[in-house]
Specification:
Helix content is 40%, strand content 21%. The chain is α/β, with parallel strands linked by helices and 368 residues long. The protein has two domains: 153 residues, DHBP synthase; 167 residues, GTP cyclohydrolase II (Rossmann fold, 3-Layer(aba) Sandwich). Helix 1 packs across helix 6, helix 5 packs parallel to helix 6 and helix 10 packs across helix 11. The radius of gyration is 22 Å and the shape is globular.
């Protein structure tokens, strides 16, 4: 009555995300068949037993390409491993164990597998899923949240444009007294995104813009492991001194992996992995973030031409792909510390970030 068919379909994805985050399995249907899908974080002996009681064939563990590479397979795409028994220890070893190797043939993923894997990524869980076929009539109607593989595929693109302003207010900042926070709701997971307007940027002219992914450890606690907090504060100071600008503060912790996975990656970094290898061990590619919804936020604010403050070539390319004109780009540098130098080198050498250590050193020197 209140939603169109398309809205109802997308709502089913939102509900499925919430269920997975709560540790409960969901039904994913495609064509005439359905599977139970659960994130590997939720698989314990009790859930394994409940899954086994209602399935009509062997379950399988769906793993992304990055994790399969860590298990010894040179794969460009995801795949699944058969689970004759839903063995909790084996699942944990294959999905997240250090030094684990593949122990069975890997099959190409079907539509259910791809949908389940995308769903756990949307839920910001560890990127692996247990999928189990369900026999017809094996579950009471309405006992589990159900969504369709096609709805999951359509979800990201639809939510990228489904953003609206819910509140705004002036918020004087230490380095920019004339600032306004504009809060958007929407995007993936209906999370809230913030545009910080510094000064009075003129949308009729190219506007200085930074896309800043939230970093709890760096932005709030001044972690020495990254340069995020420095970049955040220096951006605001620069905008305040140069005709204003817009800082988009995006809920994309840990390059889009979420705070829990970021801490898992930090633990691996403490064991000697670099930032990208740590993510690959967990099953993530170099960067899970998308910036199409950031472009939508700028358009809502009337901005179509930007002077982008970034070291990341992917952000430049993403805004251009979204139809915005990037008239220039400039670097925004943080401090070099003993704790972050390997991180900065990895971003430069492995992800192509524009990081000049001579410029960082020069910026750190006191003036004559």
């Amino acid at each position: 009555m209140f939603q169109s068919t398309a809205e109802t379909s997308l709502l089913s994805v939102e509900r499925a995300i919430a269920e997975l985050r709560a540790g409960r399995p969901v039904l994913v249907s495609h064509a005439r068949s359905a599977v139970l899908a659960a994130g590997v974080e939720a698989i314990d002996a009790e859930l394994a037993g409940r899954l086994g009681a209602v399935t009509c064939g062997p379950a399988r563990l769906v793993l992304p390409a990055a994790r399969l590479r860590r298990l010894g397979l040179d794969r460009a795409g995801s795949g699944s491993v058969a689970l004759p028994l839903i063995d909790v220890k084996r699942i944990a070893r294959l999905a997240m164990g250090l030094g684990a190797r593949i122990d069975a043939p890997v099959a190409p993923p079907d539509a259910h597998d791809e949908a389940a894997l995308d769903l756990v990524r949307l839920a910001l869980l560890a990127p692996a899923a247990v999928v189990a076929p369900v026999r017809p009539g094996g579950l009471a109607r309405g006992s589990l949240v159900r969504t369709r593989a096609s709805a999951i595929r359509a979800y990201r693109a639809s939510r990228a444009t489904d953003l609206h302003v819910v509140s705004r207010a002036p918020v004087p900042l230490e380095s920019a007294r004339d600032a306004e926070f504009v809060v958007f709701r929407g995007g993936e997971g209906l999370r809230e995104q913030v545009a910080v307007l510094v000064g009075r940027p003129d949308p009729a002219q190219p506007v200085t813009v930074r896309l800043h992914s939230a970093c709890l450890t760096g932005d709030l606690f001044s972690s020495l492991k990254c340069d995020c907090g420095d970049q955040l504060r220096r951006t605001v100071r620069y905008m305040a001194a140069h005709d204003g600008g817009i800082l988009l503060y995006l809920d994309q912790e840990g390059r889009g992996n979420g705070i829990a996975n970021k801490m898992r990656a930090y633990d691996l970094q403490a064991k000697g992995y670099d930032t990208y290898d740590a993510d690959e061990v967990l099953g993530f590619e170099h960067d899970q973030r998308r910036f199409d919804f950031a472009a939508r936020m700028l358009r809502v604010l009337g901005v179509t031409r930007v002077r982008l403050m970034t070291n990341n070539p992917d952000k430049i390319a993403a805004l251009r792909k979204a139809g915005l004109e990037v008239v220039s780009d400039q670097r925004i540098l943080g401090r070099r510390t003993d704790e972050n130098v390997r991180y900065l080198v990895s971003k430069r050498d492995r992800a192509g970030h524009f990081i000049d250590f001579d410029a960082i050193a020069a910026a750190a020197r006191p003036p004559d």
